[in-house]
Amino acid sequence: MSDLTLHPTQKTDAAHAQLWQKVSPWALVYFVVHFGVRFVRDGIFNLLPLGFVFVTQVENKLFWGQIAAAVAVSALLLYSILYYRNFRFCISSDNEILLNKGVFKKERLTLKFERVQNVNIAEPFYFKPVTLVNCIFDAAGSAAQEAVLPGVTQSYAEQMRKQIFAYKAQQQLEPDTEVETDEAAEQSSLFISNKEIAKFGLMSNMAILALAAIAPLINVVADVLEKQLITKVEGFYEQELGLVASAALFAIFTLFVFVVLIAVLLSVGMSLIRFYNYQLYFKGKKFKRIAGLLERHQLSMSLDKVQSIVIKQNIIARLLKRFTVEFLQASSGGAMAGMAAKKNKQTLVLPVLNNEQVNSVCQWIYPWFNNSALAFKQAERALWYKNLVLYALLPSLLVAVFCYFNELNYFISLGVLGVFAGLVTLSYQRYGYYLHEDNGRFYMVVRKGMIGVHYRVFELYKVQSASSESTYLMRRSGLKSLYIQLAHGFAFMPYIKEQDADFVIDFTLKQAESDTRSWM
Amino acid sequence: MFNNQQITGLPQHKSIEFKALADKAPLHAQLNWLVFYIPFSAILAAICYFNENFANNMQTYLLIGMPILILISMLYSVASIKLQGVAMRQHDIAFKKGIIWQRVTILPLARVQHIEIHRGPIERKLGLASLKLYSAGGMSADLQVSGLTHTDCKNMRQFVQDYRQEHTSTQAVPADE
Questions:
Q1: What are the tens digits of pLDDT across the range A288-310?
Q2: What are the CA-CA distances from residue A98 to residues A12, A246, A370 (Å)?
Q3: What is the pLDDT of residue A185?
Q4: Which terminal residue of chain A, N or C, has fewer Cβ atoms less than 10 Å from its own Cβ?
Q5: CA-CA distances (angstroms) from residue A317 to A199, A269, A328, A413?
Q6: How many CB atoms within 10 Å of residue A379?
Q7: pLDDT single digits (tens) A331-365
Q8: More confident: A332 or A74
């Protein structure tokens, strides 16, 4: 032993030499798909100018197009093959995962076991016949640090997961290790039918995202459409309905409906791809979720790692009487990283739940939580007055001025006043917060919304920082707004009594500073 | 059920005594404004010089407006600096700021992810520095104070680092660094 510690580098090198492994040849399929997707996703916008030149300048489009496609495909294949040949992994005796990868730029990725947050298992459709999976090691926070072992057997991936969690439990030296409690605890489960998942497509903002994704292309699309479609549709309206004057308007309207319909269909398709055959299990403070159409993605998350829980319902979800629940983990580097974390499946999303399902999921984790029965403390009336003046009266006055100059009916501004005052009132009524003690642990729930509703539940000791804000008028009426920063997202509660805000801040800080548990 | 009873012995952040920024902080703020206004005025002057049409229309307004604008922003920045204050407590750091929206932010030292000290050329000349404290999840720095003396900054950084070292060693889970 002493001999080995004298030459640490030799020791590790020797250990590695024995254990460097290649992945199964089937992994080649994964590399092809992976780089293909990346090429399309990252490269497409860079190639747009080239595409423009191609469309406008090149004469023999078919011929050169075929050549370009052939070159691209063979480059992709060659790159994937080389990448596969260079790809080696090793589980070192120092409890690290080592990856050697790269074609032009060789890189070595070292991921220590204790840095691994989750081990996720994904089963893409092309691995189904050969019963292989991708084993994904999720490092805290950054996506670039993520390590993937493609094309390993299910049992190997599960063994890796066990090994890493056993190591982590041992490192933590806590008397109640999760591994032991796992066996005894009973398992709760939740399944969501694909019909419900399709509703998520209607509810989610994916439709808007899909539109945003094609937005840069909209000019090109519009040009093509104008030539190809609008004139035809216009002609159709002219001929069939005899609407000469408004035929163009109708044509554009038809097209608009068509585009929205496509976006909605896309959104439904995307949510089905993401959440197909949704299964969720909860056992011993751990979630396991399996979902996905093209790739069965298995995600595991420990409840202790969750920074805050969001239960939300937007306007469409309210019509459908459904909720979305999100379990959020720490994200470093602000909102952009938060978005990336969502995409990178670090967030556990329960896409469509009805009220009973929300309640039953809450029963697993926080039995005290019942969104309709909690006695929320509301914002003070001053918030309502302020918002009425700022967001209802002022805009309607502006509209009135506009009406005056354009000789329009003044009832328009009255209508604006009515609608905005209604929305302001709804939003004022939604704001609320609630503090709760459960077995010596303290929780806070913050509610907001307008037509929909949004709850954020978090344990107080996980709070990152707390602020209060007040204007001169607020201080005169003894009011403050409360802002609490969390490791993922924040909670904001406007216009509450000064002593309440001060109490919440003092109490929260006490929890954050005196609790010895790790907030991560 | 949680009761909002007065808990005796809960440390109250209201009683924090904030320490004002360095004496040279207002000067620093003024110089910073000048760095913006001098080139801005120079550009306007150049336009007036070369474009007679513009000069005829705008010269009087600019000659009256610019000094007022500069004066207001100078006064505003002095008032803003005077209203800022920092305080270190045993377990956290507090910062207050704002003229219209007065804001008090308190960041527990155990939640500090990393600390930065920034010193621009003017700050170096005046012996000042800016302190930035980051926690997880924030958009940018959770707490950002400029106009502290460099020594104060270094002391605060040392205090936070000592605190982290002391507390991570007793904690069950080692921190990432």
A1: 888 888 888 888 888 888 889 99
A2: 12, 67, 46
A3: 62
A4: N
A5: 8, 18, 20, 30
A6: 23
A7: 654 445 545 555 556 788 898 999 889 988 988 88
A8: A74
For tokens 């069939």, name the residue.
A240
What is the per-residue DSSP string for B42-87? HHHHHHHHH-HHHHHHHHHHHHHHHHHHHHHHHHHHHHHHHH-EEE
Which residues of chain B have a Cβ shorter than 8 Å from any chain A Cβ? 1-2, 4, 7, 10-14, 91-92, 98, 100-111, 113, 135-140, 142-143, 170-174, 176
Q: Residue A498's closest chain B neighbor by CA?
A: B14
Tokens of A96: 């690290």
Q: Exposure pattern of A12-47 as b/e (b: 16+ CB <10 Å)?
A: beeebeeeeeebbebbbbbbbbbbeeeeeeeeeeee
Range list of β-strands (E), A416-507:
432-438, 441-448, 453-459, 465-470, 479-485, 490-497
Check if A116 contacts B (Cβ < 8 Å).
no
Burial of B1 (0-12, 13-18, 19+ CB in 10 A): exposed
CA gap B29, B122 in Å, rounded? 10
Give the contacts of A487 (CB within 8 A, at least 6 positions apart): A307, A329, A330, A331, A462, A464, A519, A520, B135, B136, B137
Q: Please name the residue that has the structure tokens 């709804």.
A: A426
